[in-house]
Amino acid sequence: MAELSKLKDVIARHGLSANKALGQNFLLDSNLLAKIVRCAGDIKSETVYEVGPGPGGLTRAILDAGVKKLVAVEYDVRAVEALAELVAHDARLNVLHGDALKLDEQALVGKSCHIIANLPYNIGTALLVRWLSNERPWPSWWQSLTLMFQKEVAERIIAKPDTKHYGRLAILAQWRAEPRITMHVPASAFSPAPKVNSAVVHIVPREPLVDIPVKTLETITAAAFGQRRKMLRTSLKSATRDVPALLDYAGIDGNRRAETLSVKEFCTLAEGLTKVCVD
To answer: Most buried by CB count within 10 Å: which residue of 121, 182, 251, 264?
Structure first.
């Protein structure tokens, strides 16, 4: 990559100032970018999918890691044009202009890939939920996720019961995957600097704690955390009229509140919703 223009020059030449409406904040430090890619593990000769490459800093680091193929999706046409010289330089890279929330990702990357991205702040959580909510088959079409989030979102993903960040996102992420924060990134590392710090989360799929439909788990967690200060015997009424039978099936005291339940207990409630409840 030594003969390529520096990222700052690429940004200046294409007028690629960060667009707040698109949730853009650029990372330009090559050492930091390489460290983020290392969080994904050994990706040499693997296929990688990237969302929101911007000027291509992380893209360059991924290519430097020796991947077989890199598919990058970018919504900002300015960035697509800026990435053209990188595409011309390396045939392994395919840059697509489009909305990552609307694409058929498996058609683009195949049945197996690693996802590495400094996600745009405005769609980061929505994309994660999309990737975690894949119904069948599981393990998913992705082998791992290595994603940059705002620090608070990262903490919500890995949160444990009885902590302030514990909620629906933690349960979805931990039901059939193992998430962990692999590094923290200060706001000062970005250009322009956002108002919050960030963190990289690495997620690997595994066998589910309980084999249940995603939508059933979402129904239970939406009911429980929709009224999180109320006891379960009350909050779960929005999920079923048969709350006593549901709680009895799961062996859970109805006087408990949502934030005290483990991920496994939520999974058991979801299982009970399909087995003992009449509505």
So the answer is: 121
